[in-house]
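User: Hi! I have a protein structure encoded as tokens and I'd like to know what sequence might fold into it. I'm fairly new to this, so please keep things simple.
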């Protein structure tokens, strides 16, 4: 049973920065992809950024050039460095991990961490 624990959310002024962390534990299998999603009130949960086991990354257009995802494979931890934050970045941010057992896909989600961008 993979468990994901997120940290680093909070309140920040527009233009500020935050770094989110997500540590995975309990996995007996290699985690393929780790990523961050966000969900604002009344909206669906959307991908923010993801990083594969080989280091390939994928970003939502709205965060390209402002957010950077990175991963510490030894610690099974993924980070999201968020710069130049905007009020529209306000949301609950969720960490997700994906892995496979044979051909079957599995995923796990963190509990979410609130990011509020406001003056």
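Assistant: Happy to help. Inverse folding works backwards from shape to sequence: for each of the 119 positions I chose a residue that suits the local structure. Here it is:
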């Amino acid at each position: 049973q993979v468990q994901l624990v997120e940290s680093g959310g909070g309140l920040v002024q527009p233009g500020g920065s935050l770094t989110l962390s997500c540590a995975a534990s309990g996995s007996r299998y290699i985690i393929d992809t780790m990523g961050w999603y966000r969900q604002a009130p009344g909206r669906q949960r959307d991908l923010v950024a993801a990083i594969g086991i080989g280091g390939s990354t994928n970003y939502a257009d709205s965060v390209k050039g402002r957010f950077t995802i990175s991963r510490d494979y030894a610690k099974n931890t993924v980070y999201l460095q968020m710069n130049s934050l905007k009020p529209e970045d306000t949301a609950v941010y969720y960490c997700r991990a994906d892995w496979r057992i044979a051909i079957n896909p599995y995923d796990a989600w963190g509990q979410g961490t609130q990011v509020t961008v406001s003056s």
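A useful reference point when you look it over: The two ends are 40 Å apart (CA to CA). Feel free to ask if any position seems puzzling.
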